[in-house]
Amino acid sequence: MVGAPIAFTGSRLDRADNVRADPDALAGMMNWRARLLKLDGLMPQIGDMGELVWGTLADAPQDAELVFLGLDTKDGGSTPCFAAVPAQGDASPRMANPNLWAVMATLPADDLAIYGGARSITDWHARHRFCASCGGPTVIAKGGWQRNCSQCQTQHFPRTDPVTIMLVEHDGQLLLGRGLNWPERAYSALAGFVEPGESIEEAVAREVLEESGIVATKVSYIASQPWPFPSQLMMGCHAMADSTEITLDTTELADARWFTREEIAAAMNGDADAPINTPPKQAIAHYLLQWWLKKEA
To answer: What pLDDT, on the 0 to 100 scale, is given for residue 93?
Structure first.
């Protein structure tokens, strides 16, 4: 590991699949001891010390669907934890909500991991109340880790979208890009969704070629991050480039450039004269850049 754990990882909750698969066992835990994660829609309520706020199941909205998040193992305990499904989901980009970035920056690491998981699963429920096979209404099942169609009985499971995010290197320099409508100095690793029928390595090579015209080879895996906006698995990779000549896809990126180790180190240190601003610490791209600087040291 490089520095602090990757954001949204390290939850202390035991998912307790044996409990969520047993309706009687789950019902037996829905009592005064159980805790409810307090949310305003999909935003967490924050306590005076900057922590998540928990209530009891009595705080849940009337007729709300409840998701079993798991058993809280803090201090050796096993407290059942739940979250209520909001009336609406939210598929908007995470940058559209500045308050969300403030929460991400201040929540303790273990609370951020719990919130990320809760946000992903409750958002999925809110946006999947009808069956993709027949259009019939679906009902919550397996403690919230499944939905079943009430008409055709099709089973639906929480969605996670795989995304590759990659550092592309050539002769000691890294290729970084600036997304459309990003601030002028904001640069990050290239990234893109894995398509059906692709391996991680193939997705890395295709996305780099599409966005920058660079041929990427020797792809290796570094680390991953669950990213709950709405529900992605970011798979961090490193690749080598055959050349430095960029052919920019202007429908995907506003700019892409090669940066030296010294320039990236200055940016990561927050130097005012650095040529770029690097991703926030909550993003796996920040972790990847730390990893690369340490690898190259």
So the answer is: 60
